[in-house]
């Protein structure tokens, strides 16, 4: 047995017992038995609700032959009432046909009364697609959607008892899935064995299975959630500093716009009063090395004489 599951189951029952003793001392009435739920938190959000409950087997059943069961069948319902009497199935207290759901349980008050009258609802798998509209939203909110059974099997009692000794998984939209896994009248070992036996069936029906499971807790409707499993955080991606150069990054780097160099112009703008600076005179030498200006001055002197 998993140590963490065993510890959490034992601690949960101790908490329930302590709270019950406190309320009894204050003369407050409370139900002697409470359901224990397993809560699975997923990593990815589910946008689709699955309306057909999946059957999950248990080592120690939550429901027994004292459980009051309502069976929804095809018409006529009298045919299945006779079969149940012949098979000596005493835990099915009422058999309701589809036509009766449409007429007798049409109003909101009638549906609410039906919901609170029975612990478990079973239905013929041939009529399950009609039920969401006929039963209404309260059955979804209270998680009492009828579980499917095959009434065409020759041993109808065995099929119904198998359904009675199981729990049921409804997958709603969101990231949280809850399943009835035990009751507080059981000992902590029975609850722990139910969890260990059922968890593989539950996770197998969750999209992406264990890869999508973030955490698992157990609780009662009035208690805190006690953890029994938490997935490890995913490791960050490794960066290879000696790996190949990222060409796209290098190209983007080379294409960065550089700051343009502004060249100053030496030309004088139009309308300016400033005088342009005179260019430096260049001295040209003759082939013999005598400057041309000296030759001109000598020619002028000889002409005067």
Folded structure, characterized:
The protein has ten helices and ten strands. Helix 2 links the parallel strand 3 and strand 4. The termini are far apart. About 3% of the residues have low confidence. GO terms for molecular function: RNA binding. Regulates cellular senescence through inhibition of PTEN translation. Acts as a pro-apoptotic regulator in response to DNA damage.
Helix content: 25-40%
Structural class: alpha/beta
Within the largest sheet, what's the order of strands? 8-1-9-10
Content of β-strand: 15-25%
SS summary, helix count: 10
Assembly status: single chain
What is the C-alpha radius of gyration, as a whole number of Å?
45 Å
Beta-strand segment tally? 10
Query: Quick one: overall form?
Result: globular
Distance between the termini: 139 Å
Mean pLDDT: 79
List the helices and strands and how they pair.
Layout: H1 3-25, E1 35-46, E2 54-57, E3 69-73, H2 77-86, E4 92-97, H3 98-103, H4 108-117, E5 120-124, H5 131-135, H6 137-141, E6 147-149, H7 156-164, E7 166-169, E8 174-183, H8 188-204, E9 213-219, E10 226-230, H9 247-254, H10 292-304
Parallel strand pairs: 3-4, 3-5, 5-6
Antiparallel strand pairs: 1-8, 1-9, 2-7, 9-10
Helix pairs in contact: 1-8
